[in-house]
Every structure is written in C-alpha cells, then in structure tokens.
Specification:
Number of domains: 3
Low-confidence stretches: none
CATH class of the largest domain: Mainly Alpha
Number of strands: 8
Shape: elongated
Distance between the termini: 88 Å
Largest sheet: 3 strands, antiparallel
Mean pLDDT: 88
Helix content: 40-55%
Order of helices and strands: EEEHHHHHHHHHEEEHEEHHHH
Strand order of the largest sheet: 1-2-3
Strand content: 5-15%
Length: about 325
C-alpha cells in the first residue's frame, strides 16, 4: 500500500549494511526535478522503519536537531548554561560527563533510560558520582527539550545509589593528635586546615592565595548564604606554618594538584586515601562539625562561633568586622589549643 503524498517512505539500500533501511521524507526537488530527501533514521527492518516514520508524522521534529550527538549537545550546554552555574556544579557535571563515554557519539534523541542507567551503575564510583551522572542527564534532558531535540525526558526514570544515612561523627582528640603525628604524609596537612578553620569542602577548594592575609593572619572566604559569604576566619597558630608553606609555593589556589585547582571529586579520592592511611572513617564535612564541637566544648563565644561558621546568629545584626571583632575571633579560635 502506497503512503500518502508528503508522508515519507522506508527504502532498502543496496549492499551489506548493518542498518539497510532508510527512513526519509521528501523536502523539495532539485533543478532536474529529482526529489531532495531529509533522512530521519536508519534501521534494521522495514517494520522498524514504518514505526519510526509513523511516530515522526504523528509528532514531527527538527531532523537536523535530532542528529545532534550527546557530545555536541554537551558542548552547546556548557556554552549556554555553565556561565549561570557555580564553579563546583560545573566541575561536577564535567566529571560526570567523562563517565558517559560510551554514549558520547550517540544521537541524543536515541539515548534511552536503560543506557543512562548503565552509565550510572557502571561508573564504579560511590553514591556522590552516581548522583552527579543522574543530575547531568537531568540537565541535558531539559536542555534538549528546550531545543526540541527530544519530546520525552528519560532521565526521570533513572535511579542512583541513595545517600547513606549517617550521623555526623566528630574527630576524637586522639585522631587529631594522630593526624599531627602524620602531617608529613602528603595531603594530611589539608585535613588539619579543615579541622582548624571550619570551612566547607567547596569553600576551601575555591579559596585563592589572594584570599589569605598572613599579616592579619586571616582567611577570607565562604559561599552558600549571605551570612556565609566572604566571612573572616583567623588562621589558627597551629596551622599557620602549613598555610604559609602553601602560599610560598606560588600557587593560585590554596589546594592545587599538578598546577591545577583540585575538584571536589578528586579531593574525595585523596580524602579516602588519607583516611585509609590513618585508619580513620570520616567525611570532609565532619571536620566542620568537629571544629564547631571543639569550640563549643572549649567555651568559645557563641557569637564568634557563628561568625566563623557563617551561621546566622540572634546576637549578630549587621555583620561588621571591626578590629575588636577580629581580636575576639582570634581569642575564640585559639581555644582549640
């Protein structure tokens, strides 16, 4: 039975091909009155081709856009969306993209949920990386929908390993002393900086050398909330020489690896290695929890603790760091001795 005019056709190509049938649609005629075709897809059987053609006619889409690969879509996504994202999210999505290499050359429209799930399950990483890959597909699906490349978001059908239910467990004094004994081991000094500054992982990884004032003995950093941004934290006397050595290394960032800023995913790998070497089980965020708990136990001023943690305090109105305030912060943080 002949298809109606303008419907399109499924034609078998010559030769030995993996996908011998082409689904095509006439879009015009050349000067010799020969038809000009737009190829919708290639497939293995005529039946498969007829299904594709029927779906296309039911919901026509931009054929050229449908040919965009995941690699091409990701490049467009980076150019358009990255400038509006935080640096940490950019690094997370770029790292997740590198775990999806089997799909890079595939047309994005043809990628189904089971293939996305294979990337998530087969990455061989923890729940954080799996969650980042799922997040990447969510972003790409929404962008592809925006460009009329897809009409269904398969990413919503994917799952990632859930974040394990854990309680924050502060470092013990014995563990902190053990870290000081092992500070000559590479990267252990970074754990000590976390323990004696109270910054979040992303805050210290994004901290530049120019944000550290050795004369005033202060860090200036912080993200996330209005109270947390650009807060001042004195450099504790016990880690001053460590920070000084970092600055003397002529780096741009406080933490660098091979001349480049350390990404969160890379630091988690470094962290896991340190914890195994030291015989401990902690997360980077537990350094922040330890910092607050130790200050509280030492009787430090509550207002000063909130200022250094970047938390909103009932006793803190407009946050103005006077000379007296910085002295109070120094007095508070030194109680960690």
């Amino acid at each position: 039975m002949k298809n109606p005019n303008g419907y399109g056709s499924v034609v078998k190509l010559s030769g030995n091909r993996r996908n011998p049938f082409v689904v095509r649609k006439t879009v015009g005629y050349n000067e010799k009155a020969y038809p000009i075709y737009d190829v919708i897809a290639y497939c293995k059987t005529r039946e498969e081709g007829n299904i594709i053609l029927a779906e296309y006619n039911k919901n026509p889409y931009d054929i050229d856009a449908a040919k965009i690969t995941m690699q091409e879509l990701f490049a467009k996504f980076k150019e358009k969306k990255y400038p509006k994202m935080s640096i940490s999210l950019q690094h997370s999505l770029s790292s997740a993209y590198n775990h999806c290499k089997p799909l890079h050359s595939m047309k994005y429209r043809e990628i189904k949920s089971f293939q996305m799930q294979d990337c998530i399950d087969g990455c061989g990483k923890s729940y954080s990386t799996q969650g980042a890959i799922k997040n990447l597909f969510g972003h790409l699906d929404r962008y592809a929908l925006e460009l009329d490349i897809i009409d269904k978001q398969y990413s919503v059908l994917t799952t990632a390993e859930p974040i394990p239910e854990t309680t924050k467990k502060p470092f013990t004094e014995d563990e902190i002393n053990r870290l000081w004994d092992m500070k000559s081991i590479e990267w252990v000094d970074s754990v000590l900086i976390f323990l004696y500054s109270g910054f979040r992982l992303s805050e210290l990884l994004n901290m530049k050398i120019e944000d550290i004032n050795l004369d005033n003995r202060t860090f200036v950093g912080g993200i996330k909330t209005r109270n947390g941004k650009n807060r001042i934290v004195p450099i504790h006397s016990k880690i001053f020489s460590i920070v000084q050595n970092k600055i003397n290394s002529n780096n741009v960032y406080l933490f660098e690896l091979n001349g480049k800023k350390v990404t969160p995913s890379k630091y988690y790998e470094i962290w896991d290695k340190i914890m195994k070497q030291c015989g401990m089980k902690h997360t980077p965020h537990e350094c922040r929890h330890t910092f607050r708990s130790r200050l509280d136990s030492a009787g430090a001023n509550k207002r000063c603790i909130d200022l250094m943690m970047g938390h909103k305090s009932k006793e803190v109105g407009e946050r103005i760091y006077t000379h007296k305030t910085i002295e109070e912060l120094e007095e508070a943080i030194e109680k960690l001795n």
